[in-house]
Amino acid sequence: MKQLSVAIDGPAGAGKSTVARQVAKQLGLIYVDTGAMYRAITWKALTHGVDLTHEETVTQMAQRTDIRLSTDIKGSDVWVDGTTVTEEIRSPEVTAHVSTIAGQSKVREVLVDKQREMGRKGGVVMDGRDIGTHVLPDAEVKVFLTASIEERARRRYQEMIRRGYEVDLEELKEEIGLRDEKDKNREHSPLRPAEDAIHLDTTGLSIDDVISRILHLCRTNL
Ligand code: C5P
Question: Mutate which of 88, 152, 183 to test ligand 1's pocket (most atoms within 8 Å of Cβ)?
Answer without folding.
Answer: 183
